[in-house]
Amino acid sequence: MTAEQHARLWAFVRGESDEISFERWFLAQDDLEVPLGGGLHWNLASADYRDRDVVWELRNSLAQRLEAHEKCKCASIPDLAAIPMGGGGLDERVFATIENVRDHGGDLWWLHLSKCSACGQHWMIAQEERIFDEYFLRRVSKETAKGILEHAWPDEFITYERVLKIGHIFATPCVFVDPMSGSLIWSAHDLQKARPEITVDEIARLLGVTPMNAKHLLQAKGG
Rg of the chain over CA atoms, in angstroms? Predict the structure, then answer.
């Protein structure tokens, strides 16, 4: 199996490849029966890709086959992904081979560049431990990683507001027992410091609190 074939198969598993386009591509491959096994190869070649249930089963079966030969979790992770902190041990499995290479530093405490010691894949990571308790990962190329090492960071995670907006794509903010938790106060003040014109309503939506709560957070000391 070539690296390109490996990447195309995993893209299908992750749902990042159009079903019909994948079907056309797969039928044009003449050397995948041995690495995939006769049964799975036949299922992939003869399936009705317009049937969502069939596609779901194909993705699961293909994932199991591919994962048996992987030394890390990188290939199974979407290009933009959220990994819960302590989420059933998934974070431990993912980060078993992903090692920190460079911290952005300064006020951008959440932002890191990491690299997998098993496959060499680079990841830009936003470690959001206040509001969502999630790691947000962006797969980056070697060229982008080189730029980051030269202090040219992509914009995607460059502000805390952007990180929280991405968080809302994947999850809902944590519910705090204490509405004046330090994490909420710090986050509200950080958002206002980064963009002074941000409204109370915007901060409330980002933090998952009421506008009144957001107003009290901004009035509190400790930001």
Answer: 21
pTM: 0.86
Sign of the alpha-carbon dihedral angle for 124, 127, 128, 133: positive
Q: What is the DSSP letter of 174?
A: P
CB count, 10 Å around CB of 20? 10
Quick one: tokens of 62?
A: 């293909």
* Residue of 140, 165, 163, 164 whose CA lies nearest to 153: 140
Question: Is the same domain home to 79 and 156?
Answer: yes
Round to whole Å and give the CA distance between 123 and 129.
Answer: 18
Cβ-based neighbour number of residue 36 at 10 Å: 22
Q: Each residue of 143-157: pLDDT tens digit?
A: 999 999 999 999 999
Residues 150 and 200 in one domain: no
pLDDT single digits (tens) 174-192: 999 999 999 999 999 999 9
